[in-house]
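Help!! Second protein's tokens look totally different from the first
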Amino acid sequence: MNRRYFISLLAGIMAACGAKNKIEPDPEEDKPVDPKPQEGETLNGTPIKEGNNLVGVITDSEGNPVRNVAVTDGFQFAVTDMNGVYQMKADPRSTTVSYSLPSGYAIRQDAATHLPSFFQKINPSVVNRKNFSLEKLTEAGSAFSFAVLGDIHIRSAATAAQFKDGAMRKIGDYFRDNPSKGPVFGVSLGDIINNAKDLETFGFAKSALGSAECGSGKFLPFFAVIGNHDHNARLGDSSKSGSDGFDHGTEANFTSTFCPTCYSFNVGKVHFVALDNFIARSEPSSSNTALPATGHNGLSDDVYKWLIRDLALVDNKSSKMVVILQHCHIRGFAEVPHREDMVSQLAEFHSAYILSGHAHICESYKYKVKAKGGQPVMERIHGVPMGNFWYSNYGPDGAPAGYYIYHVDGNDFSSWEFRSVQNPEDQMRVYDSNDVYDKESDWSHQYAWSQESLFAGGNFLLAHIYHGDEDWEVSLEHDGISEKMTFANKRIYDYCAHSHLANDGISGIRTNWTYHWDRSENWWYLKLDRPASELKGWKVVAKAKFPGSRETRTYTCDKITRKLSE
């Protein structure tokens, strides 16, 4: 390191510290110099090891050093010492440095974008001094709530405006009207962008993701997770590829707009880990898109090694919950790199959950591996706030466009809830299996429940409960009795929704889009001695149960749905 530069750096630190030892950003940072430090040089009382060109100090709002904070450049980790100092030699492929927010500290927000501010950009070819300041929470309990969004697919200023006025406004209103016991924040589970090659569309999405106003001048900090559509294959760089061909260059638009692709943070007794779990390569799928033509879900070797290093720094795992935030769901795939490895690592915690997007449907899955608290590791796949790519208010499984609210108490979820953008109380639809829906399109499916062998040749009452799972108790109450409905335990099409998506969509734009649909596992049924339409004074009662909690939520429906509308 150039001695004149280092003396200038030290003078800046001493002046900024003052009596409280407070560290401020150095206006001369990232000046191109020889990264080799001179013998005996120190930072805030800590000797800088030869070759380390990424250094900094983490302090609290009073200027006191904060020790044992994990810091990463996306490939390796350092931990702050008693002087609050971290240091490492930056990986040549790294573009950011970030800290893992310790429990008991507030989520910092960028003043302009309202997004979480826990990282800074770096240049691995020069000396980087990146300091951070943390703010202690006045009340650091173990209860808190957060919102989760599935795929958004912002493709224009217009869809960004729909997103702001729909899901983001409703999420902000929810936290304004339902104050949490602790911190609140949001998570977007990837595919924030829809194949965009330009940074302008990323800008639309960035503005939208910071727009959830949850109080007078207060905005919900939304963490971003990278999805396969957020990778730009046109920015591929073979010099940034890992051992398995994963090209880190494809992440450039995302990291320059939002945040690192792999990071972690702690709230209460929960360790959150965001991962890039799409192994992207640098060939575009066509001339009209930036989406990688080759790639698949799973953890690249680099990302898995990073995850192992991150989890190794978490103390008292058996008393905490771990939550993986990723885009691509990994259940239902025969070969997913490092899937079993990751699940076994998560089982070291008291409770473990994987929150995924990608499929555009609501679904839950329990792995055979159990966490220390006795419950299986669970993956929850999330529906979407965009419906069918902004052309319908229903997703491909027939669930309405929506979002999720999770509630934490201690080291497990106390509950979670699905909320429709159009109507938060809309939790299920009930059908008569004898109904046949209009077939106005040339699609080969006949819209009738009898296509499902399970419902052929009988009178069935069907309940599609959008985010229900096998733990729920569902019953039909009528004529003073209660009859338990059976969980179908198979994926079934919502034929009423199919008819709507194929023939209607949002009025006026039906001919301008390609609809798609998928099956859902969230079905219950009951065979009746007469058509469901002949029932009087009935209602379906669904009692939501949660693996790590005694809390329940109850939803009801007392009408047969025969046609959907926007």
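Here's the second one for comparison:
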Amino acid sequence: MEVLRINLSNSSIKQENPPKDWQNLGGRALISKIMVDEVNPTCNPLGEDNKLIIAPGILAGTTVSCVNRISIGSKSPLTGTIKESNAGGTTAYKLARLGIKSIVIEGKADDPKLLYISKDKIEIISAEEVWGMGVYDSAERLKEKFNDKIGLVIIGPAGERLYRSAGIANSDNNGSPSRYSGRGGLGAVMGAKNIKAVVIDDSNAEGIKMHDDDKFNDSKKTITDMILGNDAIKNSYTMYGTSNLVKLTNSIGALPTMNFSRGSFEGSENINGQKIHDLIVERGGEGNTSHGCMPGCLIRCSNVFPDEDGKTIVSPIEYETIGLLGPNLAIGNIDTVAKLNYLCNDLGIDTIETGGAIGVAMEAGVISFGDEEGAINILEEIKKDTYLGKIIASGASSTGKVLGITRVPTVKDQTMAAYDPRAIKGLGVTYATSTQGADHTAGQTIRANVDHRKPEGQVEASKGAQITNTLHDCLGTCFFLGGAIGGDLNLLAELYLSMTGVKLTLDELMEISKETLKRERKFNTDAGFGPADDRLPEFFYKEENPDTGTVFDVDNNEMDKIFDF
């Protein structure tokens, strides 16, 4: 496996063998290593000294289910911290098949560029013909230019304009640029470097050379059988996708409603997993209740949501987007949520951050809660690059400052995902202490064996989740895989052994995860972050969630020790 170093300032391309201490590092672990060793923590996130790193996990490149998530990392222009933003799709699979361990993009091009990568050549070419275009049209143009089997890492107008909510889209199994590394504004980093897209052509790639084919196939079969035999997965994620969480979070008072002012939404039955499933089946056409976003996926938690004529509105529509663009805005029309989702995707902006910003704008009276047409018009303002559009696209924290609103659900300037931290307090700990800003994927505790409304045990629950979730980000595995295989992560160590011949125990893998977190903490500390930044917004400590009767009351001193390991 090799490292590609692309210096856009002088148009140089270097193919390097990775250092020995990178051997067992992939995804988020490798990003943290490169960032700490090579990037000044106080650099301007949108300046030439920042780097954009694209890194498959160490298990990527095969069709084992759920092992091909991609990590994209940098210093975030939204949070000011180190940032790893994770997505499904085909990027990791195709890069690993080409023998690429990571791409490190440095400097800045003078004009818009594409990075083209194939088995036979790597080159930097003009992107003028697609610069300024939306994500979907850009992707179609590039597939016409190259071939329809390419993978894409691509930004929209939001990234080109350096909006702090800009994400990076990755192609899915169908070639749609819909799998988002959405969080942290990394699309703006890509735009600041004048890169529109990375085009990945793995035609005729040699693929992964196995250390032990027989053992690899045995491990793959074991994982496959466990997933297919898991009725809980089949009857939840496979049938309803992540939207199945709407019913659960609403029932426990954790569904953010009207700018996180409460935790349940009266119209939740119109936007939950059952409703979405039934509408897809009823409308037919291009709709699909279940499909996999990456090669070999058996959980298939993605979907294609159609309009009344069976034409695709968006794919996929997922829980976090539903929560922030639905109940958080008091919108209970799933067709409107789907349209908002599509518009965000095409602009190249994070649906979570955008939902947070529009919620703050609604609280300020820019439009009313529940105003579906007004919400769509705000996204049109972003598209037209008006002053209001610029404000919203700068994220919820900036929107609150400009509009004079103090109830802003952010930590380190990043909007919380779709869980109220007064109802799921372990996630509140994760939001507060994560190196990544308020990010549920940094340490999801909704399934933890604790009383979510009491402060006791929440720090330990978050600590365990943050270590485990980081491990998945390093391996490139989907978080859902852990549950699908009964939590037996030793199977992943066995898979790695059969692929590479390197024997790592589960304890050693967990140590890699812990070291990753320590490096990220060091980067943030050196960037000027401290304990005062590891707190939720004040209103969560003082305002009761009326649907739970609770505030966030986990002890700060206990939270400050979460990474003492």
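Reply: Different proteins will give different token patterns, so don't panic. The two ends are 31 Å apart (CA to CA).
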